[in-house]
Amino acid sequence: MTQLLWLRSDLRVRDNSALSAAMGNGPTVALYLITPEQWLAHDDAPCKVDFWLRNLAELQRELGALNVPLLIRHVPNWQQVPEALLSLCQELDIEAVQFNDEYGVHETRRDAASASLLAQHGIACQRHLDQLLFQPGSLLTQTGNYFQVFSQFRKACYRRLQIAPPVCRALPKAQAPLALALQHDPLPSSVAGFAATPLSIQQLWPAGEAEAQRRLQLFSDEQLHHYEQQRDLPARPGTSQLSAYLAAGVVSPRQCLHAALSNNYGEFDTGNPGVVCWINELLWRELYKHILVGYPRVSMRRAFRQHTEALAWRSDPEQLAAWQQGRTGIPIIDAAMRQLLATGWMHNRLRMIVAMFLTKNLLIDWREGERFFMRHLIDGDLAANNGGWQWSASTGTDSAPYFRIFNPLRQSERFDPKGEFIRHWLPELATVRAKDLHQPSCLGQNAGRLFSLPDYPRPIVDLSKSRARALAAFKSLPQAAQLEVE
Ligand SMILES: Cc1cc2nc3c(=O)[nH]c(=O)nc-3n(C[C@H](O)[C@H](O)[C@H](O)COP(=O)(O)OP(=O)(O)OC[C@H]3O[C@@H](n4cnc5c(N)ncnc54)[C@H](O)[C@@H]3O)c2cc1C
Protein backbone atom coordinates (compact mmCIF):
# COMPACT_ATOMS: atom_id res chain seq x y z
CA MET A 1 0.00 0.00 0.00
CA THR A 2 2.92 2.37 0.60
CA GLN A 3 3.24 5.14 -1.97
CA LEU A 4 6.42 6.84 -3.09
CA LEU A 5 6.00 10.50 -4.01
CA TRP A 6 8.87 11.35 -6.37
CA LEU A 7 9.32 15.12 -6.18
CA ARG A 8 11.02 17.02 -9.00
CA SER A 9 9.91 20.50 -10.09
CA ASP A 10 6.93 20.55 -7.74
CA LEU A 11 8.45 21.63 -4.43
CA ARG A 12 5.28 22.36 -2.47
CA VAL A 13 2.57 20.62 -0.45
CA ARG A 14 -0.40 22.80 -1.40
CA ASP A 15 -2.16 22.01 -4.69
CA ASN A 16 0.34 19.28 -5.54
CA SER A 17 -1.43 16.68 -7.73
CA ALA A 18 0.96 13.79 -7.06
CA LEU A 19 1.09 14.44 -3.31
CA SER A 20 -2.72 14.47 -3.09
CA ALA A 21 -2.96 11.27 -5.13
CA ALA A 22 -0.27 9.51 -3.09
CA MET A 23 -1.71 10.45 0.28
CA GLY A 24 -5.19 9.54 -0.95
CA ASN A 25 -3.93 6.05 -1.84
CA GLY A 26 -1.97 5.10 1.25
CA PRO A 27 0.93 5.86 3.56
CA THR A 28 3.36 8.09 1.67
CA VAL A 29 7.12 8.55 1.62
CA ALA A 30 8.60 11.39 -0.46
CA LEU A 31 11.84 11.24 -2.42
CA TYR A 32 14.07 13.84 -4.07
CA LEU A 33 17.04 12.83 -6.21
CA ILE A 34 20.14 15.03 -6.32
CA THR A 35 21.56 14.53 -9.85
CA PRO A 36 24.55 16.86 -10.28
CA GLU A 37 25.97 15.47 -13.55
CA GLN A 38 22.59 15.86 -15.20
CA TRP A 39 22.11 19.36 -13.86
CA LEU A 40 25.52 20.36 -15.19
CA ALA A 41 24.72 18.82 -18.58
CA HIS A 42 21.49 20.86 -18.60
CA ASP A 43 23.36 24.08 -17.76
CA ASP A 44 21.30 24.56 -14.60
CA ALA A 45 22.50 27.74 -12.89
CA PRO A 46 24.21 27.48 -9.49
CA CYS A 47 21.70 29.96 -8.04
CA LYS A 48 18.84 27.79 -9.32
CA VAL A 49 20.31 24.64 -7.74
CA ASP A 50 20.78 26.61 -4.52
CA PHE A 51 17.14 27.74 -4.75
CA TRP A 52 16.02 24.11 -5.12
CA LEU A 53 18.01 23.08 -2.04
CA ARG A 54 16.68 25.95 0.05
CA ASN A 55 13.14 25.12 -1.02
CA LEU A 56 13.69 21.46 -0.20
CA ALA A 57 14.61 22.42 3.35
CA GLU A 58 11.33 24.32 3.65
CA LEU A 59 9.45 21.48 2.00
CA GLN A 60 10.94 18.95 4.40
CA ARG A 61 9.36 20.94 7.24
CA GLU A 62 5.99 21.20 5.47
CA LEU A 63 5.99 17.48 4.70
CA GLY A 64 7.02 16.77 8.30
CA ALA A 65 3.80 18.44 9.46
CA LEU A 66 1.93 15.88 7.29
CA ASN A 67 4.11 13.08 8.75
CA VAL A 68 5.54 12.44 5.28
CA PRO A 69 9.28 11.77 5.50
CA LEU A 70 11.40 13.29 2.70
CA LEU A 71 14.24 11.03 1.57
CA ILE A 72 17.21 12.46 -0.25
CA ARG A 73 19.30 10.24 -2.54
CA HIS A 74 22.30 11.10 -4.71
CA VAL A 75 22.39 9.71 -8.26
CA PRO A 76 24.88 11.26 -10.70
CA ASN A 77 22.64 11.36 -13.74
CA TRP A 78 19.23 10.36 -15.03
CA GLN A 79 20.39 7.15 -16.73
CA GLN A 80 20.80 5.72 -13.23
CA VAL A 81 17.43 6.91 -11.97
CA PRO A 82 15.34 3.81 -12.88
CA GLU A 83 17.68 1.49 -10.93
CA ALA A 84 17.81 3.87 -7.97
CA LEU A 85 14.02 4.06 -7.87
CA LEU A 86 13.65 0.30 -8.11
CA SER A 87 16.07 -0.36 -5.29
CA LEU A 88 14.32 2.15 -3.02
CA CYS A 89 10.89 0.76 -3.91
CA GLN A 90 12.07 -2.75 -3.04
CA GLU A 91 13.66 -1.57 0.19
CA LEU A 92 10.42 0.15 1.29
CA ASP A 93 8.00 -2.30 -0.26
CA ILE A 94 6.41 0.43 -2.38
CA GLU A 95 3.20 -0.33 -4.24
CA ALA A 96 3.11 2.72 -6.52
CA VAL A 97 5.29 5.67 -7.46
CA GLN A 98 3.44 8.96 -7.94
CA PHE A 99 4.96 11.87 -9.81
CA ASN A 100 4.01 15.04 -11.64
CA ASP A 101 4.86 15.22 -15.34
CA GLU A 102 7.88 17.11 -16.67
CA TYR A 103 8.20 17.80 -20.39
CA GLY A 104 11.74 17.90 -21.87
CA VAL A 105 13.03 15.05 -24.02
CA HIS A 106 15.43 13.81 -21.33
CA GLU A 107 12.77 14.07 -18.65
CA THR A 108 10.33 12.09 -20.76
CA ARG A 109 12.91 9.37 -21.50
CA ARG A 110 13.89 9.15 -17.83
CA ASP A 111 10.27 8.77 -16.76
CA ALA A 112 9.45 6.20 -19.44
CA ALA A 113 12.53 4.11 -18.55
CA SER A 114 11.65 4.30 -14.85
CA ALA A 115 8.02 3.32 -15.41
CA SER A 116 9.05 0.41 -17.62
CA LEU A 117 11.60 -1.00 -15.15
CA LEU A 118 9.23 -0.60 -12.20
CA ALA A 119 6.40 -2.27 -14.16
CA GLN A 120 8.64 -5.30 -14.78
CA HIS A 121 8.79 -5.65 -10.99
CA GLY A 122 5.07 -5.14 -10.41
CA ILE A 123 5.34 -1.56 -9.19
CA ALA A 124 2.92 0.93 -10.72
CA CYS A 125 3.81 4.46 -11.80
CA GLN A 126 1.13 7.12 -11.80
CA ARG A 127 1.78 10.38 -13.62
CA HIS A 128 -0.11 13.59 -12.94
CA LEU A 129 -0.75 16.91 -14.63
CA ASP A 130 0.60 19.63 -12.37
CA GLN A 131 3.05 21.97 -14.09
CA LEU A 132 0.44 23.03 -16.61
CA LEU A 133 -3.21 24.00 -16.76
CA PHE A 134 -3.96 21.68 -19.68
CA GLN A 135 -2.53 18.32 -20.68
CA PRO A 136 -0.27 18.68 -23.73
CA GLY A 137 -2.01 16.98 -26.63
CA SER A 138 -5.45 17.83 -25.26
CA LEU A 139 -5.49 21.18 -27.07
CA LEU A 140 -4.97 20.67 -30.79
CA THR A 141 -5.80 22.43 -34.04
CA GLN A 142 -8.66 21.18 -36.23
CA THR A 143 -6.11 19.16 -38.19
CA GLY A 144 -4.93 17.47 -35.01
CA ASN A 145 -1.62 19.29 -34.64
CA TYR A 146 -0.12 21.20 -31.76
CA PHE A 147 -0.82 24.93 -31.96
CA GLN A 148 2.00 27.10 -33.26
CA VAL A 149 0.29 30.48 -33.12
CA PHE A 150 -0.32 32.04 -29.71
CA SER A 151 -3.63 33.78 -30.55
CA GLN A 152 -5.15 30.48 -31.73
CA PHE A 153 -3.76 28.58 -28.76
CA ARG A 154 -5.17 31.21 -26.41
CA LYS A 155 -8.64 30.89 -27.97
CA ALA A 156 -8.54 27.14 -27.39
CA CYS A 157 -7.44 27.73 -23.77
CA TYR A 158 -10.27 30.20 -23.26
CA ARG A 159 -12.79 27.64 -24.52
CA ARG A 160 -11.46 25.11 -22.03
CA LEU A 161 -11.42 27.63 -19.19
CA GLN A 162 -15.06 28.42 -19.95
CA ILE A 163 -16.08 24.78 -19.71
CA ALA A 164 -13.76 23.36 -17.07
CA PRO A 165 -11.31 25.65 -15.28
CA PRO A 166 -8.60 23.64 -13.52
CA VAL A 167 -9.28 23.19 -9.82
CA CYS A 168 -6.75 23.52 -6.97
CA ARG A 169 -6.34 20.49 -4.73
CA ALA A 170 -6.93 20.82 -0.99
CA LEU A 171 -3.98 20.32 1.35
CA PRO A 172 -4.07 16.64 2.42
CA LYS A 173 -4.66 15.80 6.07
CA ALA A 174 -1.64 14.58 8.02
CA GLN A 175 -1.14 10.83 7.88
CA ALA A 176 -0.31 8.68 10.89
CA PRO A 177 3.45 8.68 11.59
CA LEU A 178 5.18 5.90 9.63
CA ALA A 179 7.01 3.11 11.42
CA LEU A 180 9.73 2.75 8.78
CA ALA A 181 13.43 2.46 9.42
CA LEU A 182 14.56 4.86 6.74
CA GLN A 183 18.12 5.48 5.80
CA HIS A 184 18.74 8.50 3.70
CA ASP A 185 21.32 11.11 2.85
CA PRO A 186 20.97 14.39 4.72
CA LEU A 187 19.75 17.36 2.71
CA PRO A 188 22.90 19.12 1.49
CA SER A 189 23.28 22.87 1.59
CA SER A 190 25.39 22.81 -1.59
CA VAL A 191 26.22 20.47 -4.47
CA ALA A 192 29.75 19.88 -5.83
CA GLY A 193 30.24 21.44 -9.25
CA PHE A 194 28.00 24.43 -8.53
CA ALA A 195 29.56 27.65 -7.26
CA ALA A 196 28.28 29.07 -3.97
CA THR A 197 25.39 31.51 -4.37
CA PRO A 198 25.98 34.98 -2.92
CA LEU A 199 23.83 35.87 0.08
CA SER A 200 22.57 38.90 -1.85
CA ILE A 201 20.89 36.57 -4.39
CA GLN A 202 19.52 34.28 -1.66
CA GLN A 203 17.98 37.28 0.06
CA LEU A 204 16.26 38.39 -3.14
CA TRP A 205 14.64 34.99 -3.55
CA PRO A 206 13.62 33.60 -0.14
CA ALA A 207 12.59 29.95 -0.28
CA GLY A 208 9.31 28.32 0.61
CA GLU A 209 5.64 28.18 -0.24
CA ALA A 210 4.80 30.87 2.27
CA GLU A 211 7.05 33.30 0.39
CA ALA A 212 5.59 32.31 -2.98
CA GLN A 213 2.06 32.81 -1.63
CA ARG A 214 3.06 36.14 -0.07
CA ARG A 215 4.38 37.35 -3.45
CA LEU A 216 1.29 36.14 -5.27
CA GLN A 217 -1.00 37.86 -2.77
CA LEU A 218 0.96 41.12 -2.80
CA PHE A 219 1.10 41.18 -6.58
CA SER A 220 -2.63 40.38 -6.88
CA ASP A 221 -3.56 43.06 -4.35
CA GLU A 222 -1.25 45.85 -5.47
CA GLN A 223 0.03 45.38 -9.03
CA LEU A 224 -2.17 43.06 -11.03
CA HIS A 225 -4.69 45.71 -12.06
CA HIS A 226 -1.86 47.92 -13.36
CA TYR A 227 0.06 45.08 -15.00
CA GLU A 228 -0.79 46.08 -18.56
CA GLN A 229 0.69 49.59 -18.12
CA GLN A 230 3.56 48.69 -15.80
CA ARG A 231 4.87 45.36 -17.01
CA ASP A 232 7.25 46.79 -19.60
CA LEU A 233 8.95 49.26 -17.26
CA PRO A 234 12.02 47.60 -15.74
CA ALA A 235 12.47 50.34 -13.12
CA ARG A 236 9.02 49.55 -11.66
CA PRO A 237 7.99 46.48 -9.64
CA GLY A 238 5.26 45.90 -12.21
CA THR A 239 5.53 42.11 -12.66
CA SER A 240 4.99 39.31 -10.15
CA GLN A 241 8.61 38.04 -9.93
CA LEU A 242 7.10 34.59 -9.46
CA SER A 243 8.98 32.88 -12.30
CA ALA A 244 11.57 31.19 -10.07
CA TYR A 245 8.78 29.88 -7.83
CA LEU A 246 6.76 28.66 -10.81
CA ALA A 247 9.80 27.00 -12.39
CA ALA A 248 10.65 25.10 -9.19
CA GLY A 249 6.97 24.36 -8.54
CA VAL A 250 6.86 26.26 -5.25
CA VAL A 251 3.62 27.78 -6.53
CA SER A 252 1.33 26.17 -9.10
CA PRO A 253 -0.05 27.75 -12.28
CA ARG A 254 -3.53 26.83 -10.99
CA GLN A 255 -2.95 28.89 -7.86
CA CYS A 256 -1.76 31.80 -10.02
CA LEU A 257 -4.76 31.51 -12.32
CA HIS A 258 -7.23 31.44 -9.42
CA ALA A 259 -5.56 34.42 -7.73
CA ALA A 260 -6.04 36.35 -10.98
CA LEU A 261 -9.62 35.18 -11.52
CA SER A 262 -10.63 36.11 -8.01
CA ASN A 263 -9.45 39.65 -8.76
CA ASN A 264 -11.57 39.82 -11.90
CA TYR A 265 -14.96 38.38 -10.90
CA GLY A 266 -13.95 35.04 -12.38
CA GLU A 267 -13.34 36.52 -15.86
CA PHE A 268 -10.24 35.60 -17.87
CA ASP A 269 -10.87 37.28 -21.23
CA THR A 270 -12.81 40.40 -20.21
CA GLY A 271 -12.84 42.76 -17.26
CA ASN A 272 -9.66 44.30 -15.91
CA PRO A 273 -7.05 44.54 -18.73
CA GLY A 274 -4.19 43.94 -16.28
CA VAL A 275 -5.65 40.63 -15.19
CA VAL A 276 -6.40 39.54 -18.77
CA CYS A 277 -2.86 40.46 -19.77
CA TRP A 278 -1.26 38.53 -16.87
CA ILE A 279 -3.35 35.43 -17.61
CA ASN A 280 -2.08 35.71 -21.20
CA GLU A 281 1.48 35.50 -19.90
CA LEU A 282 0.57 32.34 -17.99
CA LEU A 283 -0.76 31.04 -21.32
CA TRP A 284 2.53 31.87 -23.11
CA ARG A 285 4.22 29.75 -20.44
CA GLU A 286 1.68 27.05 -21.23
CA LEU A 287 2.17 27.32 -25.01
CA TYR A 288 5.94 26.92 -24.84
CA LYS A 289 5.63 23.73 -22.79
CA HIS A 290 3.07 22.33 -25.22
CA ILE A 291 5.48 23.19 -28.07
CA LEU A 292 8.23 21.25 -26.27
CA VAL A 293 6.04 18.16 -26.32
CA GLY A 294 4.65 18.64 -29.83
CA TYR A 295 7.97 19.61 -31.44
CA PRO A 296 10.68 17.95 -29.33
CA ARG A 297 13.44 19.16 -31.67
CA VAL A 298 13.33 22.52 -29.88
CA SER A 299 14.63 20.86 -26.73
CA MET A 300 17.54 19.38 -28.72
CA ARG A 301 19.11 22.72 -29.57
CA ARG A 302 17.40 22.85 -32.96
CA ALA A 303 15.46 25.71 -34.46
CA PHE A 304 11.68 25.43 -34.66
CA ARG A 305 11.84 26.87 -38.19
CA GLN A 306 14.23 24.36 -39.60
CA HIS A 307 15.39 26.38 -42.62
CA THR A 308 16.89 28.98 -40.27
CA GLU A 309 19.56 26.40 -39.41
CA ALA A 310 21.19 27.63 -42.65
CA LEU A 311 21.63 31.14 -41.25
CA ALA A 312 25.22 32.39 -41.33
CA TRP A 313 25.67 33.14 -37.63
CA ARG A 314 28.94 34.92 -36.76
CA SER A 315 31.53 33.61 -34.39
CA ASP A 316 32.88 36.54 -32.40
CA PRO A 317 34.11 35.48 -28.95
CA GLU A 318 35.07 39.04 -27.99
CA GLN A 319 31.68 40.52 -28.75
CA LEU A 320 29.97 37.57 -27.11
CA ALA A 321 32.03 38.13 -23.95
CA ALA A 322 31.22 41.86 -23.99
CA TRP A 323 27.51 41.02 -24.18
CA GLN A 324 27.79 38.43 -21.39
CA GLN A 325 29.64 40.79 -19.08
CA GLY A 326 27.54 43.88 -19.75
CA ARG A 327 30.16 45.99 -21.50
CA THR A 328 28.77 46.47 -25.01
CA GLY A 329 28.65 50.25 -24.71
CA ILE A 330 24.86 50.21 -25.20
CA PRO A 331 23.55 51.27 -21.77
CA ILE A 332 20.24 49.37 -21.71
CA ILE A 333 21.95 46.14 -22.80
CA ASP A 334 24.71 46.46 -20.21
CA ALA A 335 22.32 47.37 -17.39
CA ALA A 336 20.13 44.36 -18.22
CA MET A 337 23.05 41.93 -18.33
CA ARG A 338 24.34 43.26 -15.03
CA GLN A 339 20.90 42.77 -13.50
CA LEU A 340 21.06 39.14 -14.62
CA LEU A 341 24.55 38.58 -13.20
CA ALA A 342 23.75 40.27 -9.90
CA THR A 343 20.26 38.87 -9.24
CA GLY A 344 19.80 35.67 -11.31
CA TRP A 345 16.78 37.30 -12.95
CA MET A 346 16.08 39.77 -15.76
CA HIS A 347 12.97 41.73 -16.58
CA ASN A 348 11.01 40.30 -19.54
CA ARG A 349 11.25 43.41 -21.74
CA LEU A 350 15.01 43.40 -21.24
CA ARG A 351 15.29 39.69 -22.03
CA MET A 352 13.74 40.46 -25.42
CA ILE A 353 15.99 43.48 -25.99
CA VAL A 354 19.28 41.72 -25.11
CA ALA A 355 18.28 38.58 -27.00
CA MET A 356 17.46 40.55 -30.12
CA PHE A 357 20.68 42.53 -29.82
CA LEU A 358 22.76 39.35 -29.60
CA THR A 359 21.01 37.54 -32.43
CA LYS A 360 20.43 40.47 -34.78
CA ASN A 361 22.94 43.27 -34.13
CA LEU A 362 25.77 40.90 -33.25
CA LEU A 363 24.38 38.08 -35.45
CA ILE A 364 25.50 35.53 -32.87
CA ASP A 365 23.67 32.20 -32.68
CA TRP A 366 20.66 32.24 -30.32
CA ARG A 367 21.95 29.00 -28.76
CA GLU A 368 24.87 30.94 -27.23
CA GLY A 369 22.43 33.27 -25.51
CA GLU A 370 20.08 30.48 -24.51
CA ARG A 371 22.95 28.61 -22.82
CA PHE A 372 24.27 31.72 -21.06
CA PHE A 373 20.81 32.54 -19.73
CA MET A 374 20.31 28.98 -18.46
CA ARG A 375 23.66 29.14 -16.67
CA HIS A 376 22.64 32.30 -14.83
CA LEU A 377 18.86 32.38 -14.44
CA ILE A 378 17.26 31.38 -11.14
CA ASP A 379 14.05 30.81 -13.13
CA GLY A 380 15.81 29.00 -16.01
CA ASP A 381 13.17 26.89 -17.72
CA LEU A 382 13.91 24.98 -20.90
CA ALA A 383 10.57 25.69 -22.58
CA ALA A 384 10.27 29.40 -21.71
CA ASN A 385 13.95 30.12 -22.28
CA ASN A 386 14.06 28.33 -25.60
CA GLY A 387 10.75 29.90 -26.61
CA GLY A 388 11.98 33.38 -25.66
CA TRP A 389 15.28 32.98 -27.49
CA GLN A 390 13.75 31.54 -30.63
CA TRP A 391 11.08 34.28 -30.56
CA SER A 392 13.78 36.95 -30.44
CA ALA A 393 15.97 35.28 -33.06
CA SER A 394 12.99 34.82 -35.46
CA THR A 395 13.71 31.09 -35.60
CA GLY A 396 10.78 30.04 -33.41
CA THR A 397 7.07 29.47 -33.59
CA ASP A 398 5.00 32.67 -33.79
CA SER A 399 8.25 34.58 -33.37
CA ALA A 400 9.15 38.19 -34.11
CA PRO A 401 9.36 38.66 -37.92
CA TYR A 402 13.04 38.83 -38.88
CA PHE A 403 12.68 42.36 -40.28
CA ARG A 404 11.22 43.78 -37.03
CA ILE A 405 14.49 44.41 -35.22
CA PHE A 406 14.35 46.31 -31.93
CA ASN A 407 16.56 49.36 -31.74
CA PRO A 408 17.89 49.07 -28.17
CA LEU A 409 18.22 52.86 -27.82
CA ARG A 410 14.61 53.43 -28.87
CA GLN A 411 13.59 50.68 -26.47
CA SER A 412 15.42 52.27 -23.54
CA GLU A 413 13.98 55.68 -24.36
CA ARG A 414 10.50 54.18 -24.38
CA PHE A 415 10.68 51.85 -21.40
CA ASP A 416 13.25 53.55 -19.16
CA PRO A 417 12.63 57.18 -20.17
CA LYS A 418 14.31 58.74 -17.14
CA GLY A 419 17.18 56.26 -17.22
CA GLU A 420 16.44 55.11 -13.65
CA PHE A 421 17.01 51.45 -14.40
CA ILE A 422 20.17 52.14 -16.39
CA ARG A 423 21.69 54.35 -13.71
CA HIS A 424 20.89 51.80 -11.01
CA TRP A 425 22.86 49.05 -12.73
CA LEU A 426 25.51 51.26 -14.33
CA PRO A 427 26.65 53.55 -11.50
CA GLU A 428 29.41 54.82 -13.78
CA LEU A 429 26.65 56.59 -15.75
CA ALA A 430 24.94 58.01 -12.64
CA THR A 431 25.57 61.61 -13.64
CA VAL A 432 24.68 61.24 -17.32
CA ARG A 433 21.45 62.97 -18.42
CA ALA A 434 18.61 60.66 -19.50
CA LYS A 435 18.59 61.97 -23.06
CA ASP A 436 22.29 61.16 -23.41
CA LEU A 437 21.65 57.60 -22.23
CA HIS A 438 19.29 57.13 -25.17
CA GLN A 439 21.25 59.30 -27.62
CA PRO A 440 21.57 57.63 -31.01
CA SER A 441 24.06 60.20 -32.26
CA CYS A 442 26.45 58.96 -29.61
CA LEU A 443 27.06 55.96 -31.83
CA GLY A 444 29.60 55.85 -34.63
CA GLN A 445 32.02 58.71 -35.18
CA ASN A 446 29.78 61.26 -33.50
CA ALA A 447 30.72 60.25 -29.97
CA GLY A 448 28.84 62.45 -27.51
CA ARG A 449 29.30 63.19 -23.86
CA LEU A 450 28.30 59.68 -22.74
CA PHE A 451 31.07 57.96 -24.62
CA SER A 452 33.77 60.32 -23.51
CA LEU A 453 33.36 58.89 -19.99
CA PRO A 454 36.55 57.03 -19.09
CA ASP A 455 34.84 54.12 -17.30
CA TYR A 456 32.33 53.21 -19.95
CA PRO A 457 33.13 51.40 -23.22
CA ARG A 458 32.37 52.73 -26.65
CA PRO A 459 29.64 50.79 -28.49
CA ILE A 460 30.97 47.53 -29.88
CA VAL A 461 28.70 47.70 -32.90
CA ASP A 462 27.08 50.24 -35.20
CA LEU A 463 23.33 49.69 -34.77
CA SER A 464 22.19 50.62 -38.26
CA LYS A 465 24.94 48.78 -40.14
CA SER A 466 24.50 45.66 -38.01
CA ARG A 467 20.75 45.81 -38.54
CA ALA A 468 21.28 45.86 -42.30
CA ARG A 469 23.70 42.92 -41.97
CA ALA A 470 21.08 40.87 -40.10
CA LEU A 471 18.39 41.66 -42.65
CA ALA A 472 20.74 40.56 -45.45
CA ALA A 473 21.56 37.32 -43.64
CA PHE A 474 17.88 36.44 -43.20
CA LYS A 475 17.04 37.47 -46.77
CA SER A 476 19.78 35.22 -48.12
CA LEU A 477 18.07 32.13 -46.75
CA PRO A 478 16.85 29.91 -49.61
CA GLN A 479 13.81 31.30 -51.40
CA ALA A 480 11.40 28.51 -50.43
CA ALA A 481 12.44 28.85 -46.85
CA GLN A 482 12.04 32.60 -47.05
CA LEU A 483 8.34 32.12 -47.77
CA GLU A 484 8.09 30.00 -44.69
CA VAL A 485 9.58 32.82 -42.61
CA GLU A 486 6.86 35.18 -43.75
C1 LIG B 1 15.05 35.43 -24.20
C2 LIG B 1 14.05 35.07 -23.12
C3 LIG B 1 14.35 34.07 -22.21
C4 LIG B 1 13.43 33.72 -21.20
N1 LIG B 1 13.76 32.72 -20.32
C5 LIG B 1 12.86 32.35 -19.37
C6 LIG B 1 13.15 31.30 -18.47
O1 LIG B 1 14.19 30.65 -18.53
N2 LIG B 1 12.23 31.01 -17.51
C7 LIG B 1 11.04 31.69 -17.40
O2 LIG B 1 10.24 31.38 -16.51
N3 LIG B 1 10.73 32.66 -18.28
C8 LIG B 1 11.59 33.02 -19.24
N4 LIG B 1 11.27 34.04 -20.11
C9 LIG B 1 9.93 34.64 -20.04
C10 LIG B 1 9.81 35.88 -19.13
O3 LIG B 1 10.83 36.78 -19.42
C11 LIG B 1 9.84 35.55 -17.64
O4 LIG B 1 8.93 34.51 -17.37
C12 LIG B 1 9.45 36.76 -16.80
O5 LIG B 1 10.34 37.81 -17.03
C13 LIG B 1 9.44 36.38 -15.34
O6 LIG B 1 9.12 37.48 -14.55
P1 LIG B 1 7.79 37.51 -13.69
O7 LIG B 1 7.67 36.26 -12.89
O8 LIG B 1 7.77 38.79 -12.97
O9 LIG B 1 6.69 37.47 -14.83
P2 LIG B 1 5.17 37.98 -14.91
O10 LIG B 1 5.14 39.05 -15.94
O11 LIG B 1 4.59 38.27 -13.60
O12 LIG B 1 4.43 36.71 -15.55
C14 LIG B 1 3.89 35.67 -14.74
C15 LIG B 1 4.47 34.33 -15.15
O13 LIG B 1 4.11 34.01 -16.48
C16 LIG B 1 5.18 33.30 -17.11
N5 LIG B 1 5.64 34.09 -18.25
C17 LIG B 1 5.62 35.44 -18.36
N6 LIG B 1 6.07 35.81 -19.58
C18 LIG B 1 6.39 34.68 -20.22
C19 LIG B 1 6.90 34.40 -21.52
N7 LIG B 1 7.18 35.37 -22.40
N8 LIG B 1 7.14 33.12 -21.84
C20 LIG B 1 6.86 32.11 -20.99
N9 LIG B 1 6.37 32.32 -19.76
C21 LIG B 1 6.13 33.58 -19.38
C22 LIG B 1 6.28 33.15 -16.08
O14 LIG B 1 6.14 31.90 -15.46
C23 LIG B 1 5.99 34.30 -15.12
O15 LIG B 1 6.47 34.06 -13.82
C24 LIG B 1 12.18 34.39 -21.13
C25 LIG B 1 11.89 35.40 -22.05
C26 LIG B 1 12.81 35.73 -23.04
C27 LIG B 1 12.46 36.82 -24.02
Explain what this protein looks like in three dimensions.
With 486 residues, the protein is α/β, with parallel strands linked by helices. Helix content is 48%, strand content 6%. It has helices spanning 17-25, 36-41, 46-65, 81-92, 105-120, 150-163, 199-204, 209-222, 227-230, 243-247, 253-262, 273-294, 317-325, 331-343, 348-361, 366-376, 382-393, 408-415, 420-425, 434-437, 463-475, 479-485; strands at 2-7, 28-34, 70-74, 94-100, 124-128. Strands 3-2-1-4-5 form a 5-stranded parallel beta sheet, sandwiched between helices. It is globular. The model is unreliable at 443-447 (pLDDT under 50). Residues 231, 239-243, 246-247, 281-282, 284-285, 288, 348, 351-352, 355, 373, 377, 379-381, 384-385, 387-389, 392 line the site of flavin-adenine dinucleotide (FAD). The site of flavin-adenine dinucleotide (FAD) has 28 residues, from helix 10, helix 12, helix 15 and helix 17.
Summarize the structure.
This protein has 486 residues and is an alpha/beta fold.
Could you name the key traits of this structure?
single chain; 486 residues; alpha/beta; Rossmann fold; Serine Threonine Protein Phosphatase 5, Tetratricopeptide repeat; DNA Cyclobutane Dipyrimidine Photolyase, subunit A, domain 3; 3 domains; five-stranded parallel beta sheet; 22 helices; 48% helix; globular; binds flavin-adenine dinucleotide
